[in-house]
Design goal:
The protein is mainly alpha-helical. The protein contains 18 helices and 6 strands. The chain has helices at about 1-15, 30-35, 45-55, 95-100, 110-135, 140-165, 190-210, 220-235, 235-250, 290-295, 305-310, 335-340, 395-410, 415-425, 440-455, 465-470, 475, 500-510, and strands at about 90, 275-280, 300, 340, 370, 390-395. The strands form 3 sheets. The chain has a two-stranded antiparallel sheet with strand order 1-3. It has a two-stranded antiparallel sheet with strand order 2-6. Strands 4-5 form a two-stranded antiparallel sheet. α3 runs antiparallel to α5 (about 110-135), α3 (about 45-55) runs parallel beside α6 and α13 runs antiparallel to α15. The longest helix is centred in the first third of the chain and has 26 residues, at about 140-165.
Length: about 525
């Protein structure tokens, strides 16, 4: 009996199984928490409830009933990832991002080091349950059952991709886990094997999901976009370019011309042709923490390294441009700077009295995010409920990934340059277009693409993962200091994180020798 209890504890902690026996209510609307499996999976309403629970994980931790407010590291908190890069500083001890950024990562760090693992497996368990049971609902057509399964497989791929990016080799579970001893003896599957599964899920999703614009449910373009991202991380340049090109050619998405800033706040996000996948919020039942965390608590503060990376309107950096005026450093700059970052004098609300004063507000680095902030919510408080959706994938990223993949596979060519220029030519951005010619080298174009990714996707949770996949994160981060004066430290071993030590300890107590800690920890 004692061994069975340990087995069940291991499954709950390590695989994130969602059942009435676990003490945490992982999903506010998780049907198998409340209803026996034997009476569920009968109608489409059951399927809708289960699918809603799957999607809710994208927002998990940010609704009024959550026990882990502003935690999890994705959804409305994805900006925290930038605190592990040269773009931002996490001003609090929240989730131990500062500990990690300063070289203090261990197997017992906790915070995001543990939650990145645990919450992902909780979401995967919800996906597995839907996939395993959807065919029991015979009142639905096969096409509809396939679509529900495809949505769950897409979101499962989303979480497995995060897991492989953080931890490398991870347990691979594609079916609901029970209380059998075999489930408790899962090992860490090789990362390449997990990537194969991710790509298989995305291929299934791209085949079964509707080929339409994004309206809140996963669509074919989103699956192909994630496939592009996965292949790019694997350095499979030809395949990545091909996946991105399908999205471009099918023409279901486009660069939003209604204003770069409105990509990140309502109502500009509604039916936006550029947004391909997002965590969607609708107060009061499910609200975004954006204004509360980034405006009121000032948890994420952009670094001067990011601010200085925005070029002047002539397309030159601030050290070489005649347009740069040190006395008015924010004038004549790439318009995305003003749309993304609050600096001294910018109104935080809708009147002059809200002008930002970093000294008065104790913002050591001098900057706050403007992206995802709605000035109509000012003055903000801990109770502020935002409705901004958090964008995980948008068409500008597809174009930049296509340009990168083409350049890495064949060198500069016209279609890759055209893709980058589409991003630059947004109506309210209109930065100088890149001219393609024989003088443009592969290395030069690579640097241009990377610069464009940094400013276009700033504070969207991409920079840390970009630096890791480019292999430049140690060189970049070891030269960075926080506004407090603390140095950033990136140890080579931190490329892959340790899994929570509690998982290893539980496995050992069950005689599971296959579940080992990440090398170096």
């Amino acid at each position: 009996m004692k061994n069975k209890i340990k087995t069940y504890l291991y499954i709950c902690l390590s695989a994130g199984i969602l059942s009435s026996g676990c003490t945490k209510d992982f999903l506010n609307k998780n049907p198998t928490d409340k209803i026996p499996e034997s009476t569920f999976w009968k109608t489409q309403a059951d399927a809708d409830l289960a699918l809603s629970g799957v999607y809710e994980f994208l927002c998990r931790g940010y609704n009024a009933t959550s026990s882990s407010n502003a935690r999890g590291g994705w959804g409305g908190a994805s900006m925290f990832w930038d605190g592990l890069s040269d773009d931002a500083f996490v001003s609090s001890t929240s989730n131990n991002f500062n500990t990690i950024s300063r070289g203090g990562l261990t197997s017992t760090t906790g915070g995001i080091q543990a939650e990145g693992y645990e919450i992902s497996y909780q979401a995967i368990a919800a996906c597995n349950r839907l996939i395993a049971n959807i065919d029991r609902i015979t009142s639905m057509s096969q096409q509809d059952r396939d679509r529900y399964s495809a949505e769950a497989r897409f979101i499962r791929a989303h979480y497995y991709f995060l897991l492989t990016n953080l931890y490398g080799d991870v347990p691979l579970t594609l079916a609901p886990l029970g209380m059998d001893d075999a489930s408790a003896k899962l090992g860490r599957e090789a990362k390449d094997k997990v990537i194969e599964t991710i790509l298989a899920d995305l291929d299934y999703a791209s085949e079964k999901l509707p080929n339409t614009a994004y309206k809140g449910h996963a669509v074919r373009g989103a699956a192909l976009g994630y496939k592009t991202r996965v292949l790019l991380t694997q350095k499979k340049w030809v395949e990545a370019a091909a996946a991105a090109k399908i999205i471009i050619d099918e023409n279901k998405f486009s660069i939003y011309q209604g204003g770069y800033r409105d990509l990140f706040r309502k109502p500009g996000q509604t039916n936006n042709p550029e947004i391909m996948f997002s965590a969607r919020f609708l107060p009061p039942n499910m609200y975004s923490p954006a204004d509360m965390m980034y405006s009121y608590l000032k948890t994420i503060q952009p670094l001067s390294y990011l601010v200085d990376s925005y070029y002047c309107v002539d397309g030159k950096n601030i050290s070489t441009s005649a347009q740069y005026d040190p006395k008015n450093p924010f004038e004549n700059r790439d318009p995305r700077l003003k749309a993304s970052i609050i600096y001294r004098g910018v109104w935080r609300g809708t009147t002059a009295s809200s002008a930002f004063d970093p000294v008065a507000e104790g913002v050591l680095g001098g900057f706050l995010p403007r992206k995802y902030i709605n000035e109509a919510k000012w003055p903000t408080s801990y109770a502020t409920q935002s409705d901004q959706d958090w964008v995980f994938l948008r068409y500008a990223d597809i174009l930049l990934m296509y340009a990168e993949a083409k350049n890495e596979s064949t060198g500069p060519e016209q279609t890759a340059v055209d893709a980058l220029n589409q991003v630059r030519s947004r109506a309210d951005v209109k930065m100088p277009l890149l001219q393609f010619g024989p003088g443009l080298t592969k290395e030069e174009f690579r640097n241009i693409i990377r610069q464009e990714r940094r400013v276009e996707l700033a504070l969207e949770g991409q920079r840390y993962f970009d630096l890791k996949r480019w292999g430049s994160i140690k060189k970049v981060m070891d030269a960075i200091k926080d506004p407090t004066g603390a140095s950033r430290i990136f140890r080579e071993r931190d490329t892959l994180w340790p899994v929570p030590q509690s998982e290893v300890d539980i496995a050992k107590s069950l005689g599971n020798d296959k579940f080992t800690q990440t090398k170096g920890f």
